[in-house]
Design a protein that fits this description.
heterodimer, A: 639 residues, alpha+beta, FAD/NAD(P)-binding domain, Flavocytochrome C3, Chain A, domain 1, Methane Monooxygenase Hydroxylase, Chain G, domain 1, 3 domains, 5-stranded antiparallel β-sheet, 18 helices, 20 strands, 15% strand, globular, B: 244 residues, Ubiquitin-like (UB roll), Fumarate Reductase Iron-sulfur Protein, Chain B, domain 2, 2 domains, 5-stranded mixed β-sheet, 36% helix, elongated
């Protein structure tokens, strides 16, 4: 049985990472050339890691499903990236950033990892600046900051509403520098379909070339997964439509534990669904909540145009319920409050599933130009999609599936329970607990890729220098490829009548209704049956046109959805197990009389890490008890 | 509404393509162009036919994956947006819509509307970076950057690499794309150090991978979904002359 060892170093929290680095084993420069590392994914974590490792002298192979590494979904992050620079002199520090993340995560994250993420945040900003990432600046030529949801200091660095794009293109440029030097080989349009394990260690991957349909084998001394989150399990989400969990899921099936799968962040400010054909929901950056005020009519079912509703008939419900933080409460709190208003009949728009986000007062106070300067591109994007201008009337927003705090369980070294298999960025579970604070995902992904993994992977590889390169004709590769082909053949031979997307939509609906923003036992048990039934239908009536030995996007989708059926069951199991409410996980059975989330620290202050035990067997839960030595565990209140 | 679609179908890079005509009913004005194609594909799959292959991912105008030539314009008739943001509001009942892949020597067709844009990556690999190693950066505020320069660098840096500029150009030139990256770094003090090497390497690679020359027509600027400006090309030329 797999045993969890978090490998947290000894020492006071502020010194753990330094002490770790001081003692970590090194690989000498000449030996690095002999070591191959596979990195899957080219977002901030993946491409950051690939370029750093290339720089160090390792032989790196980097894979992505997109046609270019520049298109990884980090590109879509809008609002910003946090760092503890304290440039605003408002009392920020590494400790405070760490504290905010622990509190924001509702005391379900590992202290040591979170502290380290905060600790390296300043290096991340310096590195991006040096690479030419054009963060916003003030007239003195220094970097500007803004405040972001759930905190009381301004520590968010930004590049208009395109911070993710700018950080990703910076990372892409450093990756290009290494490709130019020959230390990184790029394999675009490849999808990882399995992991190869030799004598208990990750030694390679099986990928499908998405252009030719060819199955390829790649070997390495270590494998790094930086494959992002699984928010598209809801079908409609703020993620790129091709984002998927398959790489992480395959690793899980091969022995990597999956931690807290039910911890999914629902983002409060997405453009609501406009029609039934919609393939995704577009996010409106949370930074808008700095100046926008969220409200609904005070009267139920008030269908007047928002501009015609006078001040006294508006309910600024976040400001009313949470006077200390107002519109800047964390994402889970804001999302649930919006859902509560809409469920009670105060929602706006045709569907009643939306609330107003109003810039009238901000424009009055700061002028239209100032607002345009901050949010111009977001307003434009809103108008393109929704057809109305936020300069003239409030935006309509509604929560949408966004970020998954759950993911592959990793220890302090970011290694999964499979030796030599690392997981970084959103694909691991480690830093955000039960809820992620805004602008912390770019920070964590970059920290993992540039500043943490390069050290920890060296510690792992230091005793591998005599291990020769692996031949991909080894029986382990043979076997893994056979499994992959069998799965593809199984999918192709169904020859049913329904498209992969139609199944995805139905699965998404079940998960959104019963394992989304709010959960209860009855609903979860129902969802379990519904998913089982739908999965059966999928395996008997799926239609995939074309051939597997060709570019076949329907086959790609089908494979991802097949994995999502399995992950959905694990999310439901995890949500059922966690009978408390914490962070983004709201169990209706566990709430205060005022309807706020109620944690149960006595019984649930642990990470639930699930082990795959077979297709027909229930997953086995391992607990990593969370010990808070530094932060006093309190009720998370934003009132 | 009902539309007639004339779509370029091509099995693979080696085969010869042709336009195929499809009638599509039940199109809603609220659909995006890609959602309209999704519904065509659903119909094709149900009829046992192969769906139209096209690149797409984020569907919010930032990843640069999508891109098709619609009625003679890259990303369609609207300005300043990508294909995924193009709404069917721009079309009316009974319209015939012609859809083609980007056409350029440097962008071979892979299948239907999917093209190979690897040539753009090759140019970036040749010099589109600042050589700074992880861990060696100075404190960010050690070097102030004028806000105007920083803002201009940002305006150049928002290129999404979709290739619409190349598709719009009668010479299939990548000048706007290349100049945007050169400008971003040329405008920042941290990028000046390698400015000469960068412009030489990137321009040489641009010619090598098969893009045409720039003749200052400006179609690229008119069709760019991110409003990348022609002034970038002027700056690239200036940087290029300075480098020799």
């Amino acid at each position: 049985m797999t045993k969890l060892e978090s490998k947290i170093p000894e020492g006071p929290i502020a010194e753990k990472w330094t002490l770790y680095k001081n003692k970590a084993n090194l690989v000498n420069t000449a030996n690095k050339k002999r070591l191959d590392i596979i990195v899957v994914g080219t977002g901030l974590a993946g491409a950051g890691a690939a370029s750093s490792l290339g720089e160090l002298g390792y032989n790196v192979k980097n894979f992505c499903y997109q046609d270019s590494p520049r298109r990884a979904h980090s590109v879509a992050a809008q609002g910003g990236i946090n760092a503890a620079k304290n440039y605003k002199n408002d009392g920020d520090s590494v400790y405070r950033l760490f504290y905010d993340m622990i509190k924001g995560g509702d005391y379900r994250a590992r202290e040591a990892n979170v502290y380290r993420a905060a600790e390296v945040s300043n290096d991340v900003i310096d590195h991006y600046t040096a690479m030419g990432v054009p963060f916003a600046r003030d007239y003195g030529g220094n970097l500007d900051n803004r405040s972001f949801g759930g905190v009381q200091v301004s520590r968010t660095f930004y590049a208009k509403g395109q911070t993710g794009q700018q950080c990703l293109l910076g990372t892409y440029s450093s990756l290009n520098r290494q490709i130019n030097k020959g230390s990184v080989t790029m394999y675009p349009r490849r999808e990882m379909l399995d992991i190869v394990i030799i004598d208990g260690r990750a030694r390679g991957i099986i990928v499908r070339n998405l252009i030719t349909g060819e199955i390829e084998r790649h070997s390495a001394h270590a494998v790094v997964l930086a494959t992002g989150g699984y928010g598209t399990i809801y079908y409609l989400s703020t993620l790129a439509v091709n984002s998927n969990a398959s790489a992480a899921w395959k690793a899980h099936r091969k022995g990597a534990l999956f931690a807290n799968p039910s911890f999914v962040q629902i983002h409060p400010t997405s453009i609501p669904q406009l029609n039934e054909y919609q393939a995704k929901l577009t996010l409106m950056s949370e930074s808008l909540r700095n100046d926008g005020r969220i409200w609904v009519p005070a009267k139920q079912g008030d269908k007047r145009h928002p501009n015609e509703i006078p001040e006294e008939e508006r309910d600024y419900f976040l400001e009313r319920k949470y006077p200390a933080f107002g519109n800047l409460v964390p994402r889970d709190v804001a999302s649930r409050a919006a859902k509560e208003r809409c469920d009670s009949g105060y929602g706006v728009g045709e569907t009643g599933l939306a609330v107003n986000l109003d810039f009238r007062d901000a424009m009055k106070k700061q002028g239209k130009a100032a607002i345009e300067n901050k949010y111009g591109n977001l307003f434009e994007m809103y108008e393109t999609i929704a057809g109305t201008s936020p300069y003239n009337e409030p935006m309509r927003i509604y929560p949408a599936g966004h970020y998954t705090m759950g993911g592959l369980w990793v220890d302090y070294e970011l290694m999964t329970t499979i030796k030599g298999l690392f997981s970084i960025g959103e694909s691991n579970f480690s830093d955000h607990g039960a809820n992620r604070l805004g602008a912390s995902s770019l920070m964590q992904a970059s920290g993992d890729g540039y500043f943490i993994l390069p050290y920890t992977i060296g510690n792992y590889l230091s005793d591998q220098i005599r291990v020769p390169r692996f031949d991909t004709s080894l029986p382990e590769f043979e076997e893994a490829e056979k499994e992959v082909l069998e799965k593809i053949n199984r999918l192709m031979s169904i020859k049913g009548t329904q498209t992969a997307t139609s199944f995805h939509k139905r699965l998404g609906r079940i998960m959104w209704d019963h394992c989304g923003m709010s959960r209860n036992e009855k609903g979860l048990l129902k969802a379990r049956d519904l998913v089982t039934e739908l999965e059966k239908e999928f395996w008997s009536d799926l239609a995939i046109p074309g051939k597997p030995e060709d570019l076949n996007m329907e086959l790609e989708k089908a494979g991802r959805i097949a994995d999502y059926f399995e992950l959905a069951q694990l999310m439901i199991t995890d949500a059922l197990n966690r009978k408390e409410s914490c962070g983004a996980h709201f169990r209706e059975e566990s709430q205060t009389p005022e309807g706020e989330a109620m944690r149960d620290d006595e019984n649930f202050m642990y990470v639930a890490a699930w082990e795959f035990t077979g297709d027909t067997k229930a997953p086995l839960m391992h607990r990593e008890e969370l010990v808070y030595e530094e932060v006093e565990v309190k009720v998370r209140s934003y009132k | 509404m009902k539309v007639t679609l004339k779509i370029w179908r091509q099995e693979n890079a080696r085969s010869k393509g042709s336009f195929q005509t499809y009638e599509l009913d039940g199109v809603s004005v609220e659909m995006s162009f890609l959602e309209m194609l999704d519904s065509l594909n659903t119909k094709l799959i149900k009829e046992g036919k192969e769906p139209v292959a096209f690149d797409h991912d984020c569907r919010e105008g930032i990843c640069g994956s999508c891109g098709m030539y619609i009625n003679g314009h890259p990303h369609g008739p609207a300005t300043g947006i990508t294909t995924c943001h193009l709404s069917m509001r721009y079309f009316k009942d009974g319209d015939t819509i012609t859809v083609e892949p980007w056409r350029a020597k440097a962008f071979p067709v892979i299948k239907d509307l999917i093209i190979d844009r690897n040539a753009l990556d090759k140019i970036q690999i040749a010099g589109g970076f600042i050589s700074v190693n992880v861990g060696s950066a100075a404190e960010s505020h050690a070097m102030p950057v004028k806000k105007n320069n920083s803002d201009d660098a940002f305006d150049s840096a928002i290129c999404i690499g979709c290739g619409a500029c190349v598709a719009a150009c009668k010479n299939a030139s990548a000048a706007l794309f290349v100049s945007a990256k050169i400008s971003q770094f040329a405008l920042l003090p941290q990028g000046r150090v390698e400015a000469k090497e960068r412009v030489r390497a990137m321009v040489a690679k641009m010619d090598e991978v098969g893009f045409g020359n720039c003749s200052n027509t400006g179609a690229c600027e008119a069709e760019c979904p991110k409003h990348i400006k022609l002034v970038n090309i002027a700056r690239m030329n200036r940087e290029f002359y300075k480098a020799y």
